[in-house]
Structure formats: C-alpha cells, structure tokens
Write a structure and sequence with these properties.
Order of helices and strands: HHEEHHHHHHHHHHHHHHHHHHHHH
Protein name: Antiporter subunit mnhD2
Helix content: over 70%
Family: Belongs to the CPA3 antiporters (TC 2.A.63) subunit D family.
Keywords: Antiport, Cell membrane, Ion transport, Membrane, Transmembrane, Transmembrane helix, Transport
Distance between the termini: 30 Å
Pfam family, one: Proton_antipo_M
Radius of gyration: 22 Å
Organism: Staphylococcus arlettae
Low-confidence stretches: none
Shape: globular
Strand content: under 5%
Largest sheet: 2 strands, antiparallel
Length: 499
C-alpha cells in the first residue's frame, strides 16, 4: 500500500514529460492529461479512505528509515489536500485553453501545469524540511514559466513582482530550514517535533518560527499580498483558477502543518502574531474587493480574504479553530476554482473586465446567475453551503481563545465579500442596460458550463455532507495537535531511539 503513495506525484510528472513529445496532437494531449489527473484523483481518494480506516501511510525511499532517508507520509491532512488539488487540476485541464489551445500546447503549457501540480502534491506529501523546499521550488519554477508566457506589458510587470517576492520567500524558507537543522540536528518532521520540545533556549525557537512564518506567509499572501492581485488579473481563466486554487493554499497548508506540529509551544507569541496578521490580511482583502470595478481584481482580493480566515482559525490554537481552518482550506480550493471559472467566463463573454458591462447578461446566460448566487452564499458562509461549517468552527475557536477582534473582523469582512460579489450579480440582473447593449455577448461552450455546474454541485455537496468531511479534518487536527500523536503514528522507532 505504501508504494501507491508515490503515484499522485509520479503520474502527473510522467504525463508532463510525455506531453512534450505529443504536443502536435492537441486532442490526444488533452485527453491524456485529463485521464492522468482523473486516475491520480481516484488513487488519492482511495488512499485517503484507507488512511481513515487505519493509520498514516509512509514511504521510505530506498528503504532508508527516517531520519536518514527521504520520507513521504500520507495522513488525513496531506491526502485530503492531494485529493482536492488533483480533482480541481483535472477540471482546470478539462476547461482547456479555448482558441489558444494549439498555441498553448505548442508552448508546453499543459506540461508546466502538471509540473506545478507535482510540486504542490510533493509539498503535501513530503515529511522532511529540505524536501519541502525542493517541492516549493519545483512548484515556483513552473509558476514562473506560466505567469511569463504572455506578450503584454501588464503581464511582464506582474511577473517581475511575483518572481522577486517569491525568490525572497524561498530564501527565507531555506534560511529557516538551516537554522532549524542547526538547532535540532534533523530534518524529519516527526523527529524535529520531538526534539524541539527538548530545546532549552526557547527564544531561538521563537526566532526560527518567525522566519518560517514570513517564508510561508509570503507564499500564502498573508499580509505580503502585493504579488497576487496583479498576477491573477493578467492570467488566462484556467491559469488564474490554477493559481487561486493551489498557490496560496500550499503556503497555508505549510503554516498549519508547522505551527501545530512543530512550533506549538510558544503560542502566546507565535499564534497571537498570526491572529494579528490574519486581521490585517482580512482588512486588505476587504478594502481590495470594494475598491475595484475590475472583476478579476475583485476575485484576486477574495483569495486574500480567505487566507485571513484560514490563518485566524490556525492562530486561535484551539481544536475547533484548527479544525475549521483545515475544513475551510479544503473548501476554498474548490470555491476559488469556481470563482475564477465564473469570472473568466464573464470576461470571455463580454470582452470586458469592468462589471458595469455585464448589464443584461442574465437574459443571455441565466445559468451564470444561478451559479453565481451559489458561489456568493458559499463565500459568505451562509448555511447550508460549503463555507458555513469551516467558518462556524473558526468562530467557535475564536470565542474559546478570546479573539473577539478577529471574530468581529471575520464577520464584517465576510459580509463585505458577499456585498462586493452581489454588486456584480445585481448588475447582471438589474443594472442599467446602456453599457450592456454596447456589448456583443459571446457564447460559452457547453462543456465549460458543465464543468462550472459540476463545481457548483460539489460546493453544495461539501456543505450538505459536512459531517463526513469533519471526520477527516478532525482526524487531521488530532494527529497534528495531540502530544506526540504524529510521531507515534508515523515514526515510533524514533521515540524508542531517544529513550
């Protein structure tokens, strides 16, 4: 069973390489990529179900046990992230590249999407510090290529900001890994978690945790958001959906893993700071969604807002808060894919990014009105849609920890997030038709509507089937927060050696 753990990473890697050689056949390339990611999703789901019935799966490469060899671990948290990510990448590739399909394949765009997916999945599965740096670099190098494949000045400017800030974040991550290795003498997550509690100088631990907070925070757009709106606004629909679904979520995942498993002792410093940063991030997102009429930039700031919610839950350092953060993180991967599919489709139909040009669209495409209202209610956390269970748990965690300012901001900014999208919705249905009449609406292909409809169904299903998903997120929370639960489940031999 442990050998299957490499498949969610190996399949997209091999597929990305094969696509290089069959790029002249666009139909075959697309079918092969979709099929590969669909199989990867099913394998990940199978492994997740197996883990929930037993214990985490580990794969020691070369037969070398931790802490000497490279180790992958499939626990409820990592496999939940892998399954959700593989699913949305399947839909993103199925969405296609429209009229630029042949040109995109000729420039190896599908291959780089799959290589980015390899980095994302590897970041979720790896169980050692240096390997997470390697996987981050695989992900970021692919994203650098994807974001620079364009000819506009706006795209070049966005790419420069994106590349520079992510290089700085990678340097901080490498610095943190070096400092943590010097302090503990090991790179394996379980071993580091065990040894860091024995360190006498807790000030050094706090300083190192701050380095990781900046490194992962820059990837997640936690306060350091400058790269995100410009980058997402210039990307095509499928790439914007890919970045929104995965890029910031990997940083959020790493923060959850590190600050529940490793840096969990000095919570009065580290987690209090996270709550503060989450509040600032929510305010940035709220101002952003209200300030623009460009629907792509409104969508980009919605991503920033959601990161604030997730980190607020983590910062409460309570079981309910962390459980809510994991649930909301999983849900947000799906919701943000849906958001950018819808926003990208609206831009394609109208040819404009200003929402004032959407007037009268509802008469032409009533389907988008239905999909959009489901999306708004899910983002706002209205029951029984998918955003509600996670926000309710974060709400509970904030109350338990006395984070009433963060709680108030979460409620206010959730309402602002809904209002910013309702402006677009009401313009589609009730807005003045003066500008709308000037627009020649295009038709969106039926298969793309089907993909959007599938995501709408999943968003509704996540809300209705929340008790089932809670079993997975609760297991993940227990494993990472309970004293030595992760170490005992993954590498019990390390505990025996220390004794």
């Amino acid at each position: 069973m442990s050998n299957l753990l490499i498949l969610p990473l190996l399949l997209p890697a091999l597929c990305g390489l094969i696509l290089v050689f069959i790029r002249n056949n666009s139909l075959l390339s697309r079918i092969f990529a979709i099929g590969t990611m669909a199989v990867s999703t099913l394998v990940s789901l199978f492994l997740l179900i197996h883990v929930m019935q037993g214990k985490p799966i580990k794969l020691d490469f070369g037969g070398w046990q931790a802490p000497y060899g490279i180790q992958f671990v499939g626990d409820s948290l990592s496999l939940l992230m892998v399954t959700t990510s593989s699913f949305v990448v399947t839909l993103i590739i199925a969405y296609g590249f429209g009229r630029a399909e042949k040109r995109a394949i000729r420039f190896y765009l599908p291959s780089f999407i799959l290589f980015l997916t390899v980095g994302v999945i590897g970041s979720f599965l790896t169980a050692d510090l240096f390997n997470i740096y390697v996987m981050f670099e695989v992900m970021l190098l692919s994203s650098f290529v994807l974001i620079t494949l364009g000819q506009s000045v706006e795209q070049l400017r966005a790419a420069i900001i994106y590349v520079v800030l992510n290089i700085v974040g990678s340097w901080m991550l490498l610095l943190g890994i070096g400092l943590l290795y010097k302090l503990t003498g090991t790179l394996n997550f379980a071993h580091v978690a065990q040894r860091i509690g024995e360190v006498q100088d807790q000030r050094a631990v706090v300083i190192i945790s701050m380095v990781f907070l900046v490194a992962f925070g820059s990837k997640a757009a936690l306060v350091l958001f400058m790269w995100l709106p410009k980058a997402y606004a210039v990307l095509n629909t499928e790439l914007a959906a890919l970045f929104a679904a995965l890029m910031t979520k990997v940083g959020a995942y790493a923060l959850i893993r590190f600050f529940t498993l490793i840096f969990n002792e000095q919570d009065d410093v580290t987690h209090s700071l996270m709550v503060f940063l989450a509040c600032v991030t929510m305010l940035i997102g709220a101002f952003g969604v209200m300030a623009y009429k460009d629907i792509k930039k409104i969508a980009a700031y919605q991503v920033i807002l959601s990161i604030g919610f997730i980190i607020l839950g983590l910062g409460t350092h309570t079981f309910a808060g962390v459980n809510g953060a994991i649930f909301y993180l999983t849900n947000d991967i799906v919701v943000k894919t849906l958001l950018f599919f819808i926003i990208g489709s609206l831009v394609y139909i109208t040819g404009h990014r200003n929402y004032q040009y959407l007037s009268g669209l509802a008469k032409q495409e009533p389907f988008f009105g239905v999909a959009f209202i489901v999306l708004i209610l899910a983002i706002g956390g209205v029951p029984p849609f998918s955003g509600f269970p996670g926000k309710l748990l974060i709400f509970q965690g904030a109350v338990e920890n006395g984070n009433y300012i963060g709680l108030t901001l979460m409620i206010i900014t959730s309402l602002i997030a809904m209002f910013s999208l309702f402006r677009i919705y009401f313009t589609m249905y009730l807005g003045s038709s003066e500008k709308g009449e000037q627009v020649l609406f295009k038709r969106i292909p039926f298969y793309r509507k089907s993909l959007i409809g599938m995501l709408v169904a999943v968003v509704i299903a996540i809300g209705l089937a929340a008790p089932i998903l809670f079993k997975v997120t609760e297991n993940a929370t227990h494993l990472n927060m309970d004293d030595q639960a992760y170490e005992k489940a993954v590498n019990p031999h390390l505990l025996k050696e220390e004794k």
